[in-house]
Design goal:
By secondary structure, this protein is an alpha/beta fold. The chain is built from 5 helices and 8 strands. Strands 4-3-2-5-1-6-8-7 form an 8-stranded mixed β-sheet.
Length: 202
């Protein structure tokens, strides 16, 4: 069975929107795009290489897929483990509208997304990594389909923007797998799902 792993850059107040570039996602009037850049260093670059420098498949929402498809096919250097793995990966896309792209190994999920993802999880193949894809992550969390979360927690607050955890998140407990801190204060913390939180358990 495949694992679904959510990889997210988040702020202290849980914002995950547009971490990489100013115009990456301005929906809702968001104007802080690129907030990871001042704190991104070689330490975090090596973390990403460790987490993405092996075979995996991608499970993406439409907006994130379009962002990736606009960038990664033009950055397909075999010596870059991240770009190489992303371009080789099968990209499973959750979208209500047709996905028209020349990016190889793109597959649009058909029918009910949650049911399609459950079928993907039953396969004996690579792990499914979820990057960005805020709306898709909310669905995965509501359906209890996330196995692990690999988070990079940046020491800033933004006050507004799309958040990793919203009101629909079900009560769930996670176990810390690994944690370390970058020289610039970014906490790298990886968790695996360990069970549901029952009413009155605290």
């Amino acid at each position: 069975m495949r694992k679904i792993i959510v990889l997210s850059f988040i702020t202290l107040d849980g914002v995950m929107q547009a971490p990489g570039r100013p115009m990456e996602d301005t929906s809702g009037g968001f104007k802080y795009g690129g907030w990871t850049v001042p704190l991104f260093d070689d330490f975090l670059g090596n973390v990403m290489k460790d987490q993405m420098g092996h075979p995996f498949d991608l499970l993406l929402g439409r907006k994130t897929y379009d962002i990736f498809a606009d960038y990664w096919p033009m950055h397909n250097d075999p010596s870059d483990p991240i770009g190489s793995s992303i371009n080789k990966a099968t990209k499973f896309v959750a979208s209500h509208s047709p996905v028209k792209s020349n990016w190889p190994n793109t597959v649009q999920l058909q029918g009910d997304v949650a049911e399609a993802v459950k079928k993907l999880k039953q396969q004996e193949r690579h792990e499914l990594q979820v990057h960005g894809s805020g709306n898709l992550i909310q669905l995965l969390l509501k359906q209890d389909l996330v196995d692990e979360m690999w988070l990079k927690i940046f020491p800033i607050t933004l006050g507004s923007g799309k958040r990793l955890f919203t009101d629909g998140t079900i009560p769930t407990s996670f176990t810390l797998i690994e944690s370390k801190t970058s020289p610039k204060g970014v906490i790298v913390a990886s968790y695996k799902r360990s069970g549901k939180v029952e009413t009155g358990s605290f």
